[in-house]
């Protein structure tokens, strides 16, 4: 079975090649069939691989498949090789599973788009890159996938490139990501310099011998890698591209900018957690940035009116939770939240897509309202997802978020203050998500007549994925129930072989110390559920029952509201502090350094080369006797060199 | 190869691949009077190449010597046989269509092609100077005719005549050199020259060195070392394009096979050689690249580019040692793919009426034939040495062999030359995609045979760029018997 690991990323690549080469030459049904089927087959393979891995004893769940030696250059050896272990198994299931549903959904959503073939080609290429990223067994191949998903993200954000805002958003995403990628690269260089390998297993095993725990080098390496994660996973200060990325088609937002690609940073930290455990300072940075982003993005989410932007900020905020989990060395919890988030956030985006589809491309929630009766499938599924993200007990988000909150309080690396931020954010999340539900589906119908006339539930290809994701949003969390419910936490147990025993040992006493902690855990859980319920009630009060109260509140807090609506003016600040100086600096470099110095030098060299060519050309006259003369001269010189040299 | 045929203790299996080609050539010549059977000529030739390839693969790791020591079969020679066969098979596929369109499809061409390949194989599979010379002539004489094959074209005739005159000129020097060596060593067999080397140097130094110099000149002419390169631009431009593609690869590989054997095995202990090759390599790559900058004709540009590439491969002659030689073989295989591929595209484009392969005629093909111009771009990137094409690894292995042997400056000059070459290779891409053009550029028709060539060369160029390891191992294994 494990011989087929390489097929998991390869099959979507074949789909990309097929759809990419034959753009405009194959009928749409064939495009859809190839596009969806390749990812579907990949998913089925992933399921088989998962069970094959599960049938092995826990300590043997580490399968490497070396396809070929990629760069053999002296001591620098990199293979194209895949690693299947409990962590990557979960990731390929999520990527190909959620990916497959979103491919199917796209068939309905994109049905009338002229770029249909191009869309599916890119989407398949994305799936290939993402699967390569999570299956890679070394940093460099992971980086290939990392750049590949970045490229696809750029291409798909700017999918409607004739729209300036879309192509600008694509460029913004790409440029901001470059900053992060640069950090990743530097981190990679540092690791190779110190360890002499980029192979994950070798690096993790050798690192303790090379680095001093808590030392400057290891901390620098981890922070540099984290800079990469910050860019890809949209954390402070590089989160600014993600909200703009909503210019892309909605299924793209669901797949790339919510469920999979943006979680690559979290995956990368989980994959390299052995390094982070040697650098407590770096872990603290991860935790603080994660918590701060969670809170900060949630506050912006409170005041957005574009349905996709609310979800975008919510994604940034939820990613913050995942980093918070990683930062308190609770990597399994971070991955667990990554998984549940993939379900409910993909569902939220797809639901939002269905709403936008019904609303004739209107995204402003203020012009919606009362859609509940028009969208009998979209509404309940989105409600399920909202309950999940808000953290209502029984839904998947509850288990994963609660585990993060508890770990941020109780872990050796945690701190009550981190818990407080996570706790408040949970309340904010519940509030803005239910604000979205109430504004969209409840209350008065605020759309114009033409739009109302067009309102319709989406086709099957779109609603079936919604229903499946809704089921997953509920049951997806049941595999990771907390210990105090008296059941096994299957997810944590599954992850144990990857997450080193050392980490569990340090965690052990805290968990094992019994009564008082269990009491504390229950207390914190009750507190957060209480806060969430209160937030939902408040949202209901302001946005369903008493919309004037919301207006009044907005006016009362107009300063704060303005600040939030304008997203703390971060884009403007970046524009003034970074972009403009860079632009002016670039103009200087262009007009002075480039045109005068470099072009002068290069053109000078070119002129010399050209003049030389002109001289030599005269020797190439086409006359054989001249050729013979030159020939004989050469012969004499060579003989002279031999005889007298 | 246990069931070899043996007549009077002559081991015919040593030359089985050559014999197949010879039989095919004879068959084609017999068919000539039967005008209705003419269409069979290229088929027979192609089948002969395939069969010969198969037999040559069978000779891998089979080392032996026969015909009174005149023929030596080793993996090094087999590797080159495979290169010749690959190059000529691909050229054959390109040529057929081109000749039909140009109205010069004569069966004699295929016989000539087969004969010249036999000559190359003879050259690569001997350690005797006289046999090398014999092979060189068997190879060269058909080449002269092939260059002039387009009888009605003045340029083609001129190419043939020029090639012939200069070739004869060079052969004279070569023969003189062989005579000097024989005078000094009383043998032309390198095994004995190597064995008696100290004695020869001590007593006949001047003859040995003069002979070496003249041999260098004679074979240097074939691989177009500057200043013995002057025939190349005129011949390459004048000869029919598929023939040019063949010229740029196969005879060059044959020349290098012989030179690697002579100078890194036979005369390995002449220290002066490294210095003189250093100068000639630098001269060759620099002149080739600089001249290529100003060409307005793509074929002529590719002619100079092939001179520059010979310069890169000569790094192996400077450096010596197994790593450099295997790098040179790697480069020759890689070069076979992307250079023949480039000529295949040029050939197709030239099938448009009135086309002379000038740069301006490339304008607009990016729109008119997107796939064709895409592969053309791929080959240009490979020629320029960009990753992930095999062109990158070819240069990388050569230059790194130079660096490891301490020839830092040689590698630096090589890299700088590569930079220069980027200009004119990218100019092809720029012209085909970006230059303005008037009207609708004529759409060219792809025929299956040329399509097959493009597939093979493009897959080779990219595939070996992604998986260079296998080919590198193969070229290293080929040296097993050589050193």
Provide a descriptive summary of the structure in words:
The complex is a heterodimer of chains A (645) and B (483). With 645 residues, chain A is mainly alpha-helical. Chain A has helices spanning 7-21, 28-54, 86-109, 116-135, 139-157, 164-195, 200-210, 216-232, 241-244, 250-259, 264-271, 273-277, 280-301, 307-327, 331-358, 378-390, 396-410, 416-441, 449-454, 460-475, 490-495, 501-512, 515-545, 547-556, 558-565, 570-619, 624-644; strands at 63-73, 76-84. In chain A, a hairpin with a 2-residue loop joins strand 1 (63-73) and strand 2 (76-84). Residues 501-516 of chain A have low confidence and may be disordered. With 483 residues, chain B is mainly α. Chain B has a domain at 313-483. Chain B has a two-stranded antiparallel sheet with strand order 1-2. A two-stranded antiparallel sheet of chain B has the order 3-4. In chain B, a hairpin with a 4-residue loop joins strand 3 (64-66) and strand 4. In chain B, helix 2 packs parallel to helix 4 (107-124), helix 3 runs antiparallel to helix 18 (448-466) and helix 18 (448-466) packs across helix 19 (468-477). The two termini of chain B are 23 Å apart. Residues 1-8 of chain B have low confidence and may be disordered. At the A-B interface, strand 1, helix 26 and helix 27 of A face helix 6, helix 8, helix 9 and helix 11 of B.
What attributes characterize this protein structure?
heterodimer; A: about 650 residues; mainly alpha; two-stranded antiparallel sheet; B: two-stranded antiparallel sheet; two-stranded antiparallel ribbon; 4 strands; about 0% strand; disordered N terminus
């Amino acid at each position: 079975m494990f011989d087929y690991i390489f097929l998991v990323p390869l099959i979507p690549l074949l789909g990309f090649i097929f759809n990419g080469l034959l753009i405009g030459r194959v009928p749409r049904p064939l495009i859809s069939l190839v596009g969806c089927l390749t990812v579907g087959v990949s998913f089925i393979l992933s399921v088989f691989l998962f069970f094959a891995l599960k049938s092995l004893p826990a300590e043997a769940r580490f399968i490497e498949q070396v396809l070929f030696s990629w760069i053999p250059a002296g001591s620098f050896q990199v293979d194209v090789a895949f690693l299947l272990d409990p962590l990557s198994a979960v990731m390929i299931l999520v990527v190909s599973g959620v990916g497959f549903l979103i491919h199917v959904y796209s068939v309905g959503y994109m049905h009338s788009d002229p770029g249909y073939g191009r869309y599916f080609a890119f989407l398949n290429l994305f799936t290939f890159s993402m699967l390569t990223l999570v299956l890679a067994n070394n940093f460099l191949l992971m980086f290939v996938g990392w750049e590949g998903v970045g490229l696809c993200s750029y291409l798909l954000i700017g999918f409607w490139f004739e729209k300036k805002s879309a192509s600008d958003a694509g460029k913004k995403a790409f440029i901001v990501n470059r900053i992060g990628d640069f950090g990743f690269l530097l981190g990679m260089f540092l690791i190779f310099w110190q360890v002499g390998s980029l192979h994950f297993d070798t690096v993790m095993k050798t690192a303790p011998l090379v680095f001093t725990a808590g030392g400057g080098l290891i901390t620098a390496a981890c922070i540099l890698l984290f800079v990469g994660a910050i860019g890809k996973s949209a954390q402070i200060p590089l989160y600014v591209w993600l909200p703009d990325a909503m210019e892309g088609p909605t299924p793209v937002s669901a797949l790339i900018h919510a469920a999979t690609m943006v979680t690559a940073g979290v995956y990368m930290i989980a994959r390299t957690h052995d390094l982070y455990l040697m650098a407590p300072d770096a872990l603290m940075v991860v935790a603080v940035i994660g918590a701060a982003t969670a809170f900060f993005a949630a506050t912006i989410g409170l005041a957005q009116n574009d349905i996709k932007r609310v979800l975008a900020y919510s994604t940034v905020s939820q990613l913050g939770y995942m980093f918070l989990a990683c930062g308190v060395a609770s990597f399994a919890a971070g991955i667990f939240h990554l998984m549940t988030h993939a379900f409910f956030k993909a569902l939220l985006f797809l639901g939002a897509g269905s709403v936008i589809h019904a609303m004739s491309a209107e995204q402003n929630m203020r012009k919606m309202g009362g859609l509940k009766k028009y969208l009998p499938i979209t509404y309940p599924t989105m409600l399920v997802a909202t309950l999940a993200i808000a953290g209502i007990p029984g839904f998947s988000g509850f288990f994963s978020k609660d585990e993060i909150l508890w770990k941020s309080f109780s872990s050796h690396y945690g701190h009550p203050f981190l818990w407080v931020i996570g706790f408040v954010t949970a309340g904010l999340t519940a509030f803005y998500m239910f604000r979205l539900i109430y504004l969209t589906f409840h209350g008065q119908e605020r759309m114009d007549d033409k739009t109302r006339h067009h309102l319709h539930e989406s086709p099957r290809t779109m609603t079936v994925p919604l229903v499946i994701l809704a089921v997953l949003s509920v049951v997806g969390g049941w595999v990771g129930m907390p210990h105090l419910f008296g059941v096994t936490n299957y997810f944590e147990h599954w992850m144990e072989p990857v997450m080193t025993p050392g980490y569990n040992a340090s965690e052990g006493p805290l968990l094992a110390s019994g009564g008082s902690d269990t009491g504390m855990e229950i207390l914190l859980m009750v507190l957060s559920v209480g806060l969430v319920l209160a937030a939902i009630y408040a949202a209901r009060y302001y946005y369903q029952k008493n919309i004037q109260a919301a207006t009044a509140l907005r006016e009362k807090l107009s300063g704060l509201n303005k600040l939030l609506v304008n997203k703390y003016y971060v884009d403007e600040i970046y524009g003034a502090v970074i972009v403009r100086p860079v632009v002016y600096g670039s103009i200087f470099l262009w007009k002075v350094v480039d045109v005068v110095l470099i072009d002068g030098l290069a053109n000078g060299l070119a002129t010399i080369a050209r003049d030389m060519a002109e001289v030599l050309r005269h020797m190439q006259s086409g006359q054989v006797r001249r050729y013979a003369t030159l020939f004989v001269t050469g012969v004499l010189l060579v003989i002279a060199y031999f005889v007298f040299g | 190869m246990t069931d070899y045929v043996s007549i009077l203790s002559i081991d015919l299996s040593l030359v089985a691949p050559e014999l197949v080609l010879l039989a095919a050539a004879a068959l084609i010549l017999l068919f000539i009077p039967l005008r209705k059977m003419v269409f069979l000529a290229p088929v027979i030739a192609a089948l002969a190449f395939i069969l010969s390839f198969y037999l040559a693969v069978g000779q891998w790791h089979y080392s032996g010597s026969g015909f009174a020591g005149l023929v030596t079969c080793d993996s090094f020679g087999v590797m080159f046989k495979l290169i010749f066969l690959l190059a000529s098979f691909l050229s054959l596929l390109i040529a057929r269509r081109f000749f039909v369109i140009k109205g010069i499809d004569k069966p004699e061409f295929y016989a000539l092609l087969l004969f010249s390949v036999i000559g190359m194989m003879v050259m690569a599979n001997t350690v005797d100077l006289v046999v090398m010379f014999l092979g060189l002539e068997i190879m060269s004489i058909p080449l002269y005719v092939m260059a002039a094959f387009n009888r009605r074209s003045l340029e083609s005739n001129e190419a043939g005549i020029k090639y012939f005159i200069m070739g004869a000129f060079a052969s004279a020097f070569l023969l003189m050199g062989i005579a000097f060596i024989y005078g000094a060593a009383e043998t032309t067999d390198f095994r004995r020259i190597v064995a008696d080397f100290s004695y020869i140097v001590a007593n006949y130094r001047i003859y040995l060195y003069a002979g070496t110099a003249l041999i260098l000149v004679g074979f240097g002419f074939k691989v177009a070392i500057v200043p013995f390169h002057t025939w190349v631009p005129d011949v390459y431009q004048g000869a029919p394009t598929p023939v040019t593609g063949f010229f740029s690869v196969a005879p060059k590989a044959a020349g290098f096979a012989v030179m690697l054997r002579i100078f890194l095995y036979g005369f390995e202990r002449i220290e002066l050689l490294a210095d003189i090759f250093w100068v000639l390599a630098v001269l060759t790559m620099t002149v080739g690249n600089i001249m290529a900058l100003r060409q307005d004709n793509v074929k002529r540009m590719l002619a100079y580019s092939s001179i520059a590439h010979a310069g890169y491969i000569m790094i192996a002659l400077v450096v010596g040692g197994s790593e450099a030689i295997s790098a040179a073989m790697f480069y020759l295989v890689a070069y076979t793919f992307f250079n023949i591929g480039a000529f295949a595209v040029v050939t197709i484009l030239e099938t448009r009426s009135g086309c002379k392969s000038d740069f301006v005629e490339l304008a607009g093909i990016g729109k008119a034939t997107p796939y064709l111009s895409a592969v053309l771009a791929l080959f240009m990137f490979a020629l320029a040495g960009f990753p992930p094409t095999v062109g990158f690894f070819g240069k990388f292995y050569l230059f790194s062999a130079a660096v490891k042997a301490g020839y830092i400056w040689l590698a630096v000059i090589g890299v700088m030359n590569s930079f220069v070459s980027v200009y004119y290779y990218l100019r092809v891409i720029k012209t085909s995609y970006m230059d303005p053009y008037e009207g609708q550029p004529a759409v060219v028709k792809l025929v299956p045979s040329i399509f097959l060539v493009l597939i093979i060369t493009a897959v080779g160029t990219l595939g070996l760029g992604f998986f260079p390891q296998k080919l590198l191992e193969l070229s290293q294994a080929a040296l097993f018997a050589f050193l």
